[in-house]
């Protein structure tokens, strides 16, 4: 249970800003070179909370290949771990997945940074003493904290190569709530967008904004600026404030996005079940009312000719009779919940994408 120890050996520190390292999951990274999920200076006004949460690096990945026998990271965070129901390893940590070279997947979990959570800067060894063989590496960045700087430490004479390519340059864009952002996964790789990114050979863009993904038109305009979308997943029902407001924002969000991307598949997803629904029937009524609205809206727009618009019922994404075991606090998934969410939506996405 102790923190990861530093590697006391000759290490060469690399900046992932430099090739052949690749940063994925941050749509504006190649223009701005910042670990941020929205543009620093968007064309229009953005809600303050959304702008703040855009600094959280949920879905950001560092990808590369190396034959190094060890791997360490140095991380400078924008703030300390401070969440009461989410582990610091998920909020502020980095985890490592490892696969065979020159192919996309499968990737196996390697390790997670464990550090003194009172600090905003840490150095951790993710593996040491491994055999000298080329490996495909994916580092998942923190879900609920910003990253000022990060460096990758490898053996002094290790080779570093570009990662295996995606099947295309298109991106899966997922817009939503704290659940989309990854609350409350125990480590970054267990956010359901990151799970899906290991199964589908495309770049995933996580635009979940905790408590603040509310379908604002200003945000829809920014989301529509992401080039080459493979599809857009819209999953912000949990933050919609009220059914009445949801009836206003969702059609407008779709309209704005569709104006920029007339043929891109859009998947509207209803929220997962609350863990206490059997005890609080009013939550079921509210969820069913909103789900019915989403289904009806999608059907109406399809009847008007938008055949690339789809609805996915999230009601059963957490599984069957034991669905109530899949959250941390009744609303936010634990790792089991995120795994089941990924399992549920994966075949739908593959049908739309591949």
TrEMBL record:
All residue ranges annotated as the SGNH hydrolase-type esterase N-terminal domain in the record: 11-159
Keyword Hydrolase listed: yes
Keyword Glycoprotein: no
Domain SGNH hydrolase-type esterase: 170-350
GO MF annotation list: hydrolase activity
Xref: InterPro entries: GxDLY (IPR032740), SGNH_hydro (IPR013830), SGNH_hydro_sf (IPR036514)
Keywords assigned: Hydrolase
Name of the protein in its database record: SGNH/GDSL hydrolase family protein
